């Protein structure tokens, strides 16, 4: 027997209050503190009590509240069997014919030692038998959960002193006569409390019952007194990881000891006991490269930290940037008998920008046709960092060779390639080659000890391909001013078109594309334009004095390229149109008092000064007795009058109109005048004379008849 495991902490209350000569009946010490290191073994002496009835101590009977203990007549408290579960308190009842007293034994479990020993010297204020003698003493009873048959099992005892003969001890409360009913019962005479079935601490950790004594008629004599039944935990729950999935992140290259994540498991068992004290451990790491023990878990706190060196924690050299750990939690503070729960912790190694993008080639080649725009070449780079991040994404810059801003480079977001494109068309004849210097960087900055090296720049050699370009006229439009009467075959202009393909020595031939009036000829070789017909400013093809033709210049490339130029001739007016009068006929009544015949207007298709003022004249009239007179009204109009009435007839009056051009042009027109008889409202203009005579003779005849009849 391990006596050293027993420690009587203190002897608190020594009831030698007055002096040594006066005998105090009862226990000499009422409270004992005992420390239980591991367990009580069968037949172990727990402590010695001293009871004195001050009358010789004959027929003293000891009763213990816990059936697993007994007190020998000499006062030794002995364990009756091996007791591993926690027992918190024992009451010892001693009876002799002369006196009756109770002592309390407090057993401090291993876990409670610390806090309880602080209070060990304090006198509990509520010690029942210090104030008055209680008839019922119901020490709390502790029962391990999950007990096995047989049931019922005696688990404790209610001690009743000064018992009235025939009285009965009654027990009630939740667990006896209230739901859950029938779990506990009491022997009405002996006070032995028994349990009828196995208990589950995780369902009900304690029961609050009442005890009383009744007489034969059921009337309460003493009580009720509380009886607490505590269910002692057994380790019947395994730890559970309840909050998965467990995913932690750690940056590559993190220093040893960096905390990655925290694992915590739950154990339903009594948290004040080892049954719920967990210890964590990593069972397995996958993959196990480069080291099988890259992480460590704090056994008590569950924190997972890195133990691998920062250099090995390199996302780019690891076979996978993700580790799986099987983590175990074991209760009983990790002892072999503990129950185990496991979970998987996933650890992701996050990328740092520790690799610059590098061109796959030092020099790229591209060819592009002159005059076109668009992507020429895709520049490829490699970056070992995580493609989902700015540590991978490339940003390209043209750092040399782009003075005309003809080139741009943009990142293809899918492939990370640099798409180099022409944005302003290139000219082969200006420069057939371009060399660009391109640099590439990441969107995110590199970590401080890594830099962009020479592989992060590359040159691009661009070859411009010649294409057959159209000849261009100089100038365009081409304008000349000519008089409209120039001779047929006159040379008007020599066009000049040049081919932009200056390096190809192409020859150009000319032709006429549009010449609506058909006036022009162009020498196909030297571009000299001459006229093939007279020009006419008054032609309907002339708009606003200008005749417009389109000229082609065709090179001898393959295929030939054609340029178009506009040729405009501004035509200067010359007096090439005679004026004309309107109207050319009129009538007048033979006996009219108003001798006005008609007002003539004149027009001319030429421009000033080749048009008005016009001069109106009548051709010379024979004889002295003039019958007609023409009077100029203004620049464009003249009035024809009769000097006296004429007989009914048709008269043709020769009118000449002359414009102001130099030299002037004259138009002689016969104005046909009918003299009609206008009787009442009827008008008769039929001629009385022979209609076959020529107009002029008729006129003469008429005139002579005027004079001689
Ligand atoms: C009680 O415990 C002792 C010592 O641990 C052991 O030798 C003995 O066999 C146990 N008795 C029973 C009944 O388990
Ligand atoms: C460049 O890449 C783009 C997108 O993939 C593609 O459409 C284009 O044809 C490529 N250009 C060249 C010149 O390879
Ligand atoms: C115009 O000039 C060409 C020569 O350039 C000549 O052959 C042609 O006869 C000329 N046309 C006229 C109408 O004179
Ligand atoms: C044609 O025009 C170009 C450009 O203006 C000029 O260089 C060239 O001398 C001209 N040729 C002739 C024949 O006038
Ligand atoms: C073009 O050729 C024609 C015919 O040979 C000639 O009359 C004309 O003067 C030439 N033009 C020029 C600008 O030499
Ligand atoms: C006609 O030509 C003149 C000068 O040449 C110009 O001011 C005017 O706008 C032109 N009118 C039209 C309709 O083209
Ligand atoms: C003269 O005038 C008449 C009418 O007034 C006209 O029909 C004719 O064409 C003119 N002659 C000329 C040569 O213009
Ligand atoms: C000339 O006289 C005619 C007839 O009286 C008239 O209709 C016309 O408007 C005049 N013209 C001018 C320019 O005055």
From TrEMBL:
Signal peptide as annotated in the record: 1-18
Localization per Swiss-Prot or TrEMBL: Cell membrane; Cytoplasm
GO MF annotations, alphabetized: beta-catenin binding; cadherin binding; calcium ion binding
Biological processes annotated in GO: adherens junction organization; calcium-dependent cell-cell adhesion via plasma membrane cell adhesion molecules; cell migration; cell morphogenesis; cell-cell adhesion mediated by cadherin; cell-cell junction assembly; homophilic cell adhesion via plasma membrane adhesion molecules
Classification via InterPro entries: Cadherin (IPR039808), Cadherin-like_dom (IPR002126), Cadherin-like_sf (IPR015919), Cadherin_CS (IPR020894), Cadherin_pro_dom (IPR014868)
Domain Cadherin intervals: 135-241, 242-359, 360-473, 474-581, 580-693
Oligomer and partners: By contrast to classical cadherins, homodimerization in trans is not mediated by cadherin EC1 domain strand-swapping, but instead through a homophilic adhesive interface which joins two elongated EC1-EC2 domains through a region near their Ca2+-binding sites to form a tetrahedral, X-like shape.
Function: Cadherins are calcium-dependent cell adhesion proteins. They preferentially interact with themselves in a homophilic manner in connecting cells; cadherins may thus contribute to the sorting of heterogeneous cell types. May act as a negative regulator of neural cell growth.
Protein name in UniProt: Cadherin-13
Gene that encodes it: cdh13.L
